[in-house]
Design goal:
- The complex is a heterodimer of chains A (about 240) and B (about 240).
- With about 240 residues, chain A is mainly beta.
- Chain A is built from 2 helices and 19 strands.
- In chain A, the strands form 4 sheets. Chain A has an 8-stranded antiparallel β-sheet.
- In chain A, a hairpin with a 5-residue loop joins strand 3 and strand 4.
- The longest helix of chain A is centred in the N-terminal third of the chain and has 4 residues.
- In chain B, a hairpin with a 2-residue loop joins strand 12 and strand 13.
- Helix content of chain B is about 5%, strand content about 50%.
- Chain B has 2 helices and 17 strands.
- With about 240 residues, chain B is mainly β.
- Classes of the chains: A mainly beta (about 240), B mainly beta (about 240).
Chain lengths: ~240, ~240
Amino acid sequence: MSSSPSALLSVTYVEPGYRHVVELVHQRDPDARRRLRSLDLAVYEPEGKLLAEVSIDPAEETLDLAAVTAGPAAGRPRVMAVFDARYDERIFPYRPHHYGFLHREGSSSAPLYYAVGAVLGGVPQRVDNSRINNFETYVFAGGPFAERHAVLLGNLARFAPALAQVFAYYGPERVVRDVSLPPKAHTEVTLEPEHGGRRLERVEIKSLFRMATYVTGRRATSGDLVLFDHLFTFFK
Amino acid sequence: MLGVRRTATYYLPWLVRPGLACTLLLSDVEARFEPSHKRGPFPLRVEQYDAGGALALAYDVTLTDSVEVRELALASASGGCGFVVVRSERVHSDLYVTLSDGESYTATHGRGEFVERYPLRARILLTLLGGALAPLGRTVAAFARDQYAYVGPDSRSHLLLLNLSNVTNRIRVAAGAAGRSVGARLVALPPMGASLFDVSSLSPAAARETGVWRLRLQGNAWFNFYVVGAGSRDLAGPLSLMHVK
């Protein structure tokens, strides 16, 4: 093991009623490398208030996130779960992210396997937060589907509020939403399925530093998550 | 030593089942940020390989500009699953594949990797060695991947195994949980072939308990897989696909 551990700050969002398991290491690792040096979990409510801090046993390979956050998440529609990992750089050999499994209990919807978004750190410093602009994009299917889309935005900064713009594109038209988030706060920005007779085609997020972002899709009838995905950073 | 050639390849999985449509989202949205390439048209050729590895269908698509998104509904082909290869000189954006039950859809993106081409002597060698090891449930472990799989009565993960080579790929899938072996099986995929592997079938009794299994996959040639998520109706219900690294 290196005497100079790497660090990774990664984020996901937890909603009650879901089976939600997060893998703590990259799945490509051979047995000998499947150990983090330390892992701390912090749970925040939407307004940014710290609800819980939990030290996770780094010997574990997967974490039942639903169980760990059940207390602080109770009565809230969603909480933000922040993982602060220290590790030998070989733990995340390809890209600095790990995976999670998500499924609404009792639902016939498909479970989702997803990449937990990295916000800061990496192998080493693979997640670049030094650009003056962060610009992320996601493309949607045309449908028509009874599915509601949104973006989740979280501000991981310790002290600085974050300003972001969410651009939803409908053919030649676009709808812009400005979002301001205090430190450690998060929000879900709903994307209207139609505008001016055109369906939602893509979304872009612009911000001054990297935020904890996901695209979500929910069945209109049940609210089940059927899409929980990372956006793409094309502009570098 | 074996004379293997690797050809850069962008591929996505496909999976068609009754009541479940599979559609590609083709775009080159990244080109907007490249002044020298932002103007179309962007021609693509999509080649759809079936589970047996045969080139079943091919589609030619042209994107008129960098913000156009074309949807390409994939027809089913032999075996109901496989992968598509997208060939284009100018499209470098990640492309999506969706699975829809008509009400909603799930989505993931493709992978930019390579396909291995083994010369005849290497294919003969692997055929002989693989044939000798197969009765023992083993393979020539040239490549290995580790993956977690999720089992339980309400939700589970399957694997869509993809043989990214021109040689028969014998892939051994072994599962363990809590430090104990759950089961193992050898799957033989034809060149460029695919198979939807039911992880729970390694131990149906153990899979009735909600849990996480650790998988180790070993193959005699380059391969990858997508995780297929299934809910309470298993493969008869809505499904999701997800790439791995």
